[in-house]
Amino acid sequence: MHLIFDFDGTLVDSFSNVIDKFNVLAEEFKFRQIKQDEIPLLRNLNSRALIKFLKIPLYKLPKVIRKARKFMHDDIRLLSSYANLPEVLRLLCDAGFSLGILTSNSRENVTTWLTHHKLRHLFDFIHIETSFFGKKRTLKRILQRYQIKKTDAFYIGDETRDIEAAKKCGISSIAVSWGFNSETTLLSTAPDYLAREPSELLLIMGVR
Questions:
Q1: How far apart are CA 53 and CA 47, in angstroms?
Q2: Residue 18: which residues within 8 A CB-CB, separation 6 or more?
Q3: Domain residues of the chain, as ranges?
Q4: Distance between CA 139 and CA 146 in Å, rounded?
Q5: Are 183 and 32 in contact (CB under 8 A)?
Q6: pTM (2 decimals)?
Q7: What is the 3-state secondary structure (H, E, C) of 84-139?
Q8: Mind listing the pLDDT tens digit for each residue in 126-176?
Q9: Confidence at residue 148, expressed as pLDDT on a 0 to 100 scale
Q10: Which CATH class name applies to 2-13+80-204?
């Protein structure tokens, strides 16, 4: 069985850092800054509604994301994981599950963070998708490259676009409510499973 994880908001607690970086970039790219009292509202928006709320033109989005990744690099070692998640990952690996990562963050940021937290050896692969909405295509490429059957794959993420990508690819999805999108918003996409804390991943996968 293969578990493919999103990175930001799923493995690493980067929510506040991402908000800060987007606010720094707002003036340069002429989009809306995020106010602290708006954050609960943002958690209830799906990915496309979020981009619309911030007034980021889609043609500017790739440049914004690339620059945000560069800004994040200086802080990446300081970002923590979620409570008990490293131990859950180790238990899943020990139980024979193959772990991978699909993310729109940079390979350098992901590798630096995993290495710093002594988790790199747990993951068989890291795949980067530079397009904000391109995870469906990359999931398909991952299945082909590693000869993974759709029935043996799960994609685990904290945003509606993660769940939507898994559905479009025809694999099972696990939404985690400790990241960006709220539980209510995640459930609106009808994920196959919902985990409210990392230990529930073990229950979903039948690891005791």
A1: 10
A2: 8, 68, 72
A3: 2-13+80-204, 15-77
A4: 11
A5: no
A6: 0.92
A7: CHHHHHHHHHHCCCEEEEEECCCHHHHHHHHHHCCCHHHEEEEEECCCCCCHHHHH
A8: 999 877 777 888 999 999 999 999 999 999 999 999 999 999 999 999 999
A9: 95
A10: alpha beta
